[in-house]
Amino acid sequence: MTDSASAPQIPVTVLTGFLGAGKTTLLKHILKAEHGLKIAVIENEFSETPIDGQLLGDDAVQVMTLSNGCVCCTINTDLERALYVLLERRDNGELDFDRLVIECTGLADPAPVAQTFFVDETLRERYLLDGIITLVDAANADRHLQEAIAQAQVGFGDRILVSKRDLVSPEQYDALLERLQRINRRAEIHAVEHGSIALERLLDVRGFNLNADIGLRPLLRPVRPAADTTDRITTLVLRSEKPLDIERLSEFMDDLLQWHGNSLLRYKGVLNIAGEERRLVFQGVLRLYGFDWDTEWRGDEKRESVIVFIGDNLPEDQIRQGFEAITGGPAA
User: Fold this and answer.
1) Which residues form a coiled coil (predicted)?
2) Strand 71-75 relative to strand 39-44: parallel, antiparallel, unpaired?
3) What is the rounded CA–CA span in Å between residue 79 and residue 128?
């Protein structure tokens, strides 16, 4: 019997991407890799192919242990119930796992999956959403990315994995990378072949941790604007070297969430607050967000506030004007 009150949080990795992008292939690679981890997997009945054959029966949540000790949970009910089933069986000693991977359907919106780990208090205490991994099929990306849900999957990602690179020309691949970077400038992008990729690229991503790591490295790469882009999901970056008044900042964020909260897929900020030696860090998913004080600014570093929004049809000019109003200067 596990003492759930003292048990460490279970890291959760979410796999998303359109049908045929290679989620199941990647999942099999994760399960078969020599990592010594005890991984539980939640997949639903609409995935391309079940991990270990079709599970029989009519139960809404079916759990089986694979030969290597990993746990497979197939669901045809809501995710929350499946998460509780795994916790119950882990706590009473029926199952043994220390990580969880969730494979979403190709047409799934990652937002409700991510929100599950913030809304329910018990799930928030027992699980830790570590990162969202989005797979993109290079050969079919142009067609898939015509769909807003596919763009949202890219926008939510902490890591973007591009499969079938060998089926497109170098010019097509480079154009796809630029498009993915315009949609999501926070995420690292890696090519993946037949689901094979180093696990450190996928695990312990800490994409939802409240810290000062805002993913600035992708932001340093210049991204050429696309004059004819029709993508609804894009990245907006606000910067200011002027210390921010925390009350005016709060008003700015409250207004933004009130009017555009449902369009803010992911957002994160590291802020220089007037009269405060510590960084203020915050992040959110849609209307759910958290904030905390981080470490003190070092004497040799530039105190700069940076906010990254990944949103759906955000009014960029309006948001920039609102930010300029509280900083007294143009947002970089």
Assistant:
1) none
2) parallel
3) 15
Dump pLDDT digits (tens) for 105-126. Answer: 777 788 989 999 998 999 999 9
Instruction: Supply the range of the domain harboring residue 66.
Output: 10-201
Point out the domain boundary residue: 178, 201, 224: 201
Q: Give the per-residue pLDDT at 296.
A: 94
Last residue in a domain, options 201, 224, 240: 201
Mean pLDDT on 72-79: 78
Instruction: Give the pTM.
Output: 0.87
User: What percent of the chain has pLDDT above 70?
Assistant: 86
**117 close to 12: Cβ distance less than 8 angstroms:** yes
For 190, counting Cβ atoms within 10 Å of its Cβ (0-12 exposed, 13-18 middle, 19+ buried), the class is middle
Rounded CA gap, 213 and 76, in Å?
Answer: 37
23, 129: one domain: yes
Q: Which of 46, 118, 162 has its CA nearest to residue 284?
A: 118
Helix axes 79-91, 110-119, angle to 10 degrees: 50
The string of pLDDT tens digits covering residues 126-160 is 999 999 999 999 999 999 999 999 999 999 999 99
In a domain, 332, yes or no: no
| CB neighbours of residue 169 within 10 Å | 8
Q: Hey, how many other C-beta atoms are within 10 angstroms of the C-beta on 291? A: 15
Distance between CA 89 and CA 95 in Å, rounded?
A: 6
Is the CB of residue 83 less than 8 Å from the CB of residue 97? no
